[in-house]
Amino acid sequence: MHYLGRNIRYLRKRLSKNQGEIAALVDKGQTTVGNWEKGVSEPSLGDLLILSNYFGISVDALLRTDLAESGRKEAVREEVGREEDRPDYHHEAEHGPSMVMERSEDLLIPILKEIESIRQEINEMKERLGS
Known about the structure:
Helices cover about 65% and strands about 0% of the residues. The chain is elongated. The chain has one domain (about 5-130): lambda repressor-like DNA-binding domains (434 Repressor (Amino-terminal Domain), Orthogonal Bundle). The chain has about 130 residues and is mainly α.
């Protein structure tokens, strides 16, 4: 089961944030965050990593665990860091490259390497099968 939208809403409300504040965090419009919460659309991988880092919870838990209904409420309290411990994201152009991009790039490199490794394995299997 996929709980992303529900979890974004749950964590946002838990931190007393509105959709506009989360939208500013990922440099999107408020409607976009609303659509994520309703399951109409989903955040990009980069946005998902930003949200995961901001809320202080793993991407896996954000996607696959119903945080609002599960018995993990206590664990969520411990996992979700205090606001002052969360990174400060700025998207204003006058600040130059944003921390979001730097952190996203750092986090994406191992993921992209793993994707490339999987592609190579698939190609090797195709060759063995004569495809």
